[in-house]
Amino acid sequence: MRLSQSILLFVASSLPFAAGQSTHGDDESDKMGPVAFMWPPDREWGAAEDNTAPCGSAQGVTNRTDFPLLNGALALIIQDDSWNVHVSISYKDDPKLNDDFELLIEPKRIDSLEPGHECYPLPSPPRDIEEGANATLQLKYLSEFDSKETETFYACADIKFVAASKFTKQIPCFNVTSDDFVAPSPSSTSSSTPSKETSNSDSVSSKGSNGLSGGGIAGVVVGIVAGLALIGLGFFLARRYQQKKRIRLHELSVRSVKWDDVGNRTASP
Q1: What angle do CA 244, 250, 252 make, to 5 degrees?
Q2: Residue 23 has pLDDT above 60, yes or no
Q3: Residue 180 domain-assigned?
Q4: How far, in Å, CA of 198 to CA of 189, rounded?
Q5: Weakest-pLDDT range from 28-42, 58-72, 226-240, 254-268
Q6: Is the C-alpha dihedral spanning 165, 167, 170, 172 positive or negative?
Q7: Is residue 131, in this structure, part of any structural domain at all?
Q8: Where's the Copper acquisition factor BIM1-like domain (predicted)?
Q9: Which of 19, 78, 123, 230 has the greatest count of CB atoms below 10 A from its CB?
């Protein structure tokens, strides 16, 4: 039990560090559009290109993420209200047009998105798509991000299909919204610091809600994912230690038996 307790303490102490190492962190509000792929990772975002079809990025195909042929899913980070979300896929090596993509998830299934994190399972590819095949996932949606006008936004993630038996990564598949991260109200702070209360209240209201900013939500979400991974590793190591301990005790108990005495007792009338 001491080992398992030590591992859990190490995991707990590592959570703040893991959250700090997130890709989409507190400053991500000016480094991503209203919606971005958390997994698989998307192409580099640019404010000048995020309304440009088909991928909203000046970056072409670079690194591809291994993606399972069966039971695949995508994880999204949302920092601004969005709606009419299309999820599509192209099996071309380097798609250039919207016509190169075919619809995977219809807009009526994701009619709107609120700030937070969402996960969606994807249907398996056609039978003629085999291990090693390339593909590109596309997001196409509407938002009023940094504008009072509704605009169409795009994002793409490049993938390579692998057999499900060879896919060992844990997809960060869970759902959470900004309502789950409510900031403390000014009345809950000390009355001796009115100027700080006023500034906090103004900064919260400027974000349009009483929750964290889009970038803050993104940082918390990735921190949770890293924390869950560390906790899972801790329990795995603790369980493995306990199994080895039981096997060792069993071996010692077997060795301590005087087999000659056992044989004599068996042979005696």
Answers
A1: 105
A2: no
A3: yes
A4: 11
A5: 254-268
A6: negative
A7: yes
A8: 32-177
A9: 78
Number of domains composing the chain? 1
**How buried is 158 (Cβ within 10 angstroms: 0-12 exposed, 13-18 middle, 19+ buried)?**
buried
Strand order from edge to edge, sheet including 73-78: 35-39, 73-78, 116-121, 176-177
Identity of the amino acid at 198? T
**CA 135 to chain CA mean position, Å:** 20
Let me know if residue 128 belongs to a domain. Answer: yes
Q: Which amino acid is at 268?
A: S
Report the distance separating Cα 160 and Cα 66, nearest Å.
Answer: 5
Pair 217, 118: CB distance under 8 Å: no
> How do residues 202-244 score in pLDDT, each as one tens digit?
433 344 444 455 555 556 555 665 565 566 556 556 666 666 6
Look-up of token digits 């044989």: 263
Tens digits of per-residue pLDDT, 188-199?
444 444 444 444
- Confidence check: pLDDT of 170 > 60: yes
Task: Tokens 């509407």: give the residue.
Answer: 142
Residue identified by tokens 């069966």 is 70
Cβ density class 181-220: b for 16+ within 10 Å, e for less? bebeebeeeeeeeeeebeebbeebeebeeebbbbbbbbbb
191, two tokens: 């009355």
Residue 156, domain member (yes or no): yes
Strands 176-177 and 116-121: antiparallel
Cα-Cα-Cα-Cα torsion 15, 16, 21, 24, nearest 10 degrees, comes to 100
The CATH number of residue 93's host domain is 2.70.50
Tokens, residue 222: 């990735």
